Amino acid sequence: MNEPFEGTTIGGIVLRNRIVRSATWEGVCDGNGAPTEKLFSCYDALAEGGVGLIIGGYAYVSPEGKQSIGKMGMHDDSLVPSLRVLTGRVHDKGGKIVAQLVHAGGQANRNVSGHPPVAPSAVSLPFYREVPAELDRAGIGRIVEEFARAAARAKEAGFDGVQLHGAHGYLLGQFLSPLTNARRDEYGGSLENRARILVETVGAVKRSAGKDYPVWIKLNGDDFVLGGATAEETVSVARFLESAGIDAIEVSGGTPASGARTPARTSIDSIEKEGYHRDLARGIKRQVRISVGVVGGFRTLSVIEDTLRAGDADFVSLSRPLIREPGLVNRWASGDRSRAACISCNGCFLPALRGDGIRCMPVKNAMG
Predict the structure, then answer these.
(1) Mean predicted lDDT score pLDDT of the chain
(2) Which of 65, 166, 258, 326 could form a disulfide with 45 if both were Cys (CB 3.0 to 4.6 A apart)?
(3) Which residues span the domain enclosing 290?
(4) 312-344: buried (b, 16+ CB within 10 Å) or exposed (e) per residue?
(5) Is there a contact between 189 and 207 (Cβ–Cβ < 8 Å)?
(6) What percentage of the chain has pLDDT greater than the value 70?
(7) Considering the chain, what percentage of its residues have pLDDT values greater than 90?
(8) Distance CA 365, CA 368 (A)
(9) Given a cut of 80, is residue 365 above it in pLDDT?
């Protein structure tokens, strides 16, 4: 039976407990993606607060794949020394840290990246700022290698593993979705073809960083959008990835086009609304042998306990609650089982959008 506060090995990484800080855009890196003192302090607080693992905010593997200001970079060798300081501080406090690697694809922002966006297909969608250019085969191969080189940098910088971002409508997820992938070559059409770039990326990362270096993936259990990736398809994709050598899957869901079912849903004000991707994780967990985790609306320790004890997931991830309470895990472990203070208003993203970095700022005050 899985327990929240037991030490364990998940996805090739030895952890002090099963509660993970899911990747969160902090918005406090410098213009080249290097961490600043604000980010050091943020991760200090998380490591001291007791989380079993910190998954870093989504780090871009190439400049063209950059979406947001203040975003972490993993695209250049010059970043390694500052990233090594970051991982060292986490390790000094007994924590573990994974780098999340991303290419935003059609969601990349030319005003931030300085490059036109690229995607599997040149389609116009409401959540794309502009119609992206369709990648040719050479461009796909280049991006796969950029993921591989970024993983090697992460390893050199002391990260305990990497997580590929295959969820939330970013490039890898765009290949999986028929809505954003209209290709007729070996990267489009059948599910196996649409998943090809993910499988190739896992292989390239393993060759670059070493076959024993932990490689996780964040995967949408369902896009929750008409024409997007479905729960049934995702189970098959999980099997493809397991065969390719992925070490763990973190299950999320939704894209910017998913309406109320976006990845960060609001008004999670009752136990019944918590763990909104739990069923999706259970469906994948039953079909693979590798570690499976889940993120999405966990606010109560009893819900986390039930999810783990039922075998629906091997770990549970939190994001917004740890913005408000970085010491939440220690609080729960100490015996204070009261619900997380997070009210799921998403006010925490507003200061980051202004360039001030993410921080808890309830909407009733943030808008003033």
Answers:
(1) 95
(2) 326
(3) 8-337
(4) bbbbbbbbbbbbbbbebbebbbeeeeeebebbb
(5) no
(6) 98
(7) 92
(8) 5
(9) no
Q: How far is CA 105 from CA 25, 133, 179, in A?
A: 17, 9, 14
Map 172-210 to HEC letters: HHHHHCCCCCCCCCCCCCCHHHHCHHHHHHHHHHHHHHC
Inter-residue contact 31 to 75 (CB < 8 Å):
no
Question: Looking at the domain assignment, is residue 360 inside a domain?
Answer: no
Q: Given this model, what pLDDT does residue 70 score?
A: 94
How many independent structural domains does the chain possess?
Answer: 1
Task: Output the CA torsion 355→359→364→365 (10° steps).
Answer: -70
Q: Is residue 302 part of a domain?
A: yes
Rounded Cα distance, 71 and 68, in Å: 6
- pLDDT band with cut points at 50, 70 and 90 for residue 367: very low
Element (H, E) at 118: strand 118-119
Given the residues 58, 60, 128, 170, select the one marked as catalytic.
170
Answer whether residue 368 shows pLDDT above 80: no
Asked if the structure places residue 354 within a domain, the reply is no
Give domain status of residue 2, yes or no. Answer: no
pLDDT of residue 364: 61
Q: What is the CATH number of the domain that holds 307?
A: 3.20.20.70
> Which pLDDT does position 19 carry in this prediction?
98
| pTM of the shown model | 0.96
How crowded is residue 247: how many other Cβ atoms within 10 Å of its Cβ? 23
